[in-house]
């Protein structure tokens, strides 16, 4: 047993570290132990491709407020992926929907079995997908510090897969076990068996994409996990609560990663008194115009992850108590929403067979995907403000911005139309003529990729990105975060 103050200790003497007393349920333990080698083969084949002897990694040892993580150099194949649920509150009551006020469920009610399984499978599918997408990034890491962060994100996404697989095995019997197998069978970008959600079949071919992904797409994860943390199904709620703790580091990697790219570009522009993209590119940085295009792409693809603007699925999830709202407990309403309405983004009839982008009133329950997407957008804006502060401090007038909600959408009401980043509706031909101004082109991608030369020397960093303000766990930037083989 590894004990630390303030929480339930993880049992590390077991083959699968856990704080759920796995040894008390031999059948479940055996089922998970037979899934474990498949997970490890998947990690070998689809996980980080760069061979590393060991990496300075954080491992969860506890779920309490203090001292929940241990840091040390470990070989990634020996990382102790485990099952950790936040502590149980025995008096927890359901906070919303038709079962509001009833005790939280410790088992899956038969009538909600298939919906809950679907939510777990969608969530579980994203975790290994992101590891697959990031598989080759190690070969072009800008520093050992960044390489370590990549690997940390990867092992924790692997653990988040374990989190969902545990729930599938423990509560869904045979179909749960089959779904767990399928989570390793589907692969990002595969023609035959792709990952379920769109963004998880896109490539993450370079580090600017990685930082944008960890800023925008991991942030969707934060919001989806936040709604599942509200779930009436208590084991799911407790699992998500602990996952969110780990997720905070992934957000930090994205936020400060983009900070550092913007900082480097801004400094170069200020020092050379230039706003010329070609000159910035020739001097080995990423022009602001390209950063904006990458931002446009990752933000719009991540907006799609919230589903349609209106959805009967989400209304049913809420009413059943499966998936709540972001910070449900702080909302000042009846937490049932049966009589409420709200305005969602919509295509509205502008007469003469034309449409314009506007708002439509719908029942609050069917608008819940929009509610969550708006919370997410407000959070994304805080990053943009941060990056703009870096530009302002460098004395530059340029600013980054989030594109309009209708821009480049493939899911929901705007999937069938084209819109500019300002939200102007465009014809198909106008979009074709102008989209290269807004989304990364092959030329942009080639430039970004040309900068991706590995810097694997201790204390050194690539020229296209500024060093971080601080290291990991109080260590300096020039610490040996990774020993390569
Ligand atoms: N791609 O009724 P609608 C993370 C489907 S990220 C493809 O609007 P709903 C992470 C949808 O399945 C967080 N298909 O959908 C981040 C439905 O199909 P059916 C992941 C899509 O159900 C970084 C149909 O379109 N977790 O953790 O209201 C690294 C109609 O749609 C997409 C979750 O998402 C899409 N983007 O909302 C690592 C939480 N969107 O049923 C990890 C669980 C929709 O007609 N998932 N469709 O065949 C959910 O809560 C919901 O299922 C969704 C969709 C929000 C995804």
Structure characterization notes:
The strands form 3 sheets. The chain has a 3-stranded antiparallel β-sheet, with helices on one face. Strands 3-4 form a two-stranded antiparallel sheet. It has a two-stranded antiparallel sheet with strand order 5-6. A hairpin with a 2-residue loop joins strand 3 (341-351) and strand 4 (354-363). The protein has 485 residues and is mainly alpha-helical. The chain has helices spanning 26-46, 113-133, 144-171, 173-185, 207-228, 234-271, 277-282, 288-304, 312-320, 368-393, 428-434, 442-451; strands at residues 52-60, 69-74, 341-351, 354-363, 418-419, 425-426, 482-484. Benzoyl coenzyme A binds next to helix 2, helix 5 and helix 9. The site of benzoyl coenzyme A (BYC) has 25 residues, from helix 2, helix 5 and helix 9.
Q: What is the fold's blueprint, element by element?
A:
Elements: H1 26-46, E1 52-60, E2 69-74, H2 113-133, H3 144-171, H4 173-185, H5 207-228, H6 234-271, H7 277-282, H8 288-304, H9 312-320, E3 341-351, E4 354-363, H10 368-393, E5 418-419, E6 425-426, H11 428-434, H12 442-451, E7 482-484
Antiparallel strand pairs: 1-2, 1-7, 3-4, 5-6
Helix pairs in contact: 1-3, 1-4, 2-3, 2-4, 3-4, 3-6, 5-6, 5-8, 5-10, 6-10
The structure holds benzoyl coenzyme A (BYC).
């Amino acid at each position: 047993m590894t004990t630390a103050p303030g929480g339930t200790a993880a049992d590390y003497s077991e083959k699968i570290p856990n704080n759920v007393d796995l040894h008390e349920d031999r059948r479940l333990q055996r089922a998970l132990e037979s899934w474990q080698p498949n997970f490890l083969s998947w990690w070998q084949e689809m996980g980080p491709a760069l061979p590393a002897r060991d990496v300075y990694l954080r491992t969860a040892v506890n779920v309490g407020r203090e001292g929940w993580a241990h840091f040390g150099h470990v070989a990634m194949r020996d990382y102790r992926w485990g099952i950790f649920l936040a502590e149980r509150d025995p008096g927890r009551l359901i906070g919303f929907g038709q079962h509001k006020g009833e005790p939280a469920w410790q088992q899956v009610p038969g009538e909600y079995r298939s919906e809950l399984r679907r939510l777990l499978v969608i969530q579980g599918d994203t975790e290994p997908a992101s590891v697959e997408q990031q598989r080759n990034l190690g070969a072009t890491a800008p520093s050992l510090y960044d390489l370590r962060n990549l690997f940390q994100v990867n092992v924790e996404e692997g653990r988040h897969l374990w989190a969902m697989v545990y729930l599938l095995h423990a509560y869904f019997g045979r179909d749960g076990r089959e779904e767990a197998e399928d989570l390793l069978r589907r692969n990002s970008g595969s023609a035959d068996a792709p990952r379920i959600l769109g963004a998880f079949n896109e490539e993450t071919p370079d580090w600017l994409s990685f930082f944008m992904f960890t800023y925008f797409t991991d942030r969707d994860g934060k919001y989806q996990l936040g709604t599942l943390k509200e779930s009436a199904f208590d084991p799911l709620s407790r699992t998500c609560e602990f996952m969110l703790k780990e997720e905070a580091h992934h957000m930090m990697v994205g936020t400060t990663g983009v900070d550092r790219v913007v900082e480097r570009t801004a400094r170069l522009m200020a020092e050379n008194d230039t706003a010329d993209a070609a000159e910035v590119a020739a001097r080995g940085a990423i022009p602001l115009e390209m950063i904006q295009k990458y931002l446009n792409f990752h933000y719009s693809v991540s907006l799609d992850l919230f589903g349609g603007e209106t959805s009967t699925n989400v209304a049913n999830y809420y009413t059943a108590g499966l998936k709540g709202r972001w910070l449900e407990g702080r909302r000042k309403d009846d937490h049932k929403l049966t009589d409420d309405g709200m305005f969602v983004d919509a295509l509205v009839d502008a007469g003469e067979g034309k449409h314009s982008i506007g708002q439509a009133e719908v029942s609050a329950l069917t608008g819940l995907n929009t509610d969550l997407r708006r919370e997410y957008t407000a959070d994304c804006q805080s990053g943009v403000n941060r990056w703009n502060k870096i530009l302002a401090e460098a004395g530059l007038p340029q600013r980054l911005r989030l594109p309009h909600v209708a821009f480049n959408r493939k899911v929901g009401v705007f999937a069938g139309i084209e819109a500019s980043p300002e939200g102007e509706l465009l014809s198909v031909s106008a979009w074709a003529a102008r989209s290269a101004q807004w989304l990364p082109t092959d030329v942009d991608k080639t430039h970004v990729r040309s900068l991706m030369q590995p810097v694997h020397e201790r204390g050194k960093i690539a020229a296209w990105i500024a060093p971080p303000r601080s290291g990991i766990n109080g260590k300096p930037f020039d610490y040996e975060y990774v020993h390569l083989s």
